[in-house]
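User: Hey, quick favor. My workstation is busy. Could you predict this chain's structure for me?
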Amino acid sequence: MPIINFTNPLTVLLALILFVLVLYLGKEMKKSWIIGLMLFAFIAILIGHTIEFATISNQSEELYHSIVTSATFDLIFIFLSFISYLWIDDIEAKAGKKKSIDNSLEWFWNKV
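Assistant: No problem, here it is.
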């Protein structure tokens, strides 16, 4: 079984709730490093799932499916964490009256 099994809906729900709470904490404190920790945590989980996938040797189809599904959810959470990091970083720059080199989310909001 994967280290964190995202095929279980309860696990996905708990990860989503934890993500939203950390996002809220980072937004309220205006600190981008908080959501950056969440980003690196999901990257570490993805690395763990990748190692598990590489080391399985002709196990059952169910194990293969659960590791691939878990890695897919890892990638989704990494994408959400990255977009959230850019958003909180922009909030932090505006709150600290720091000049930002570029508006990191401008490319995203123009397409929406």
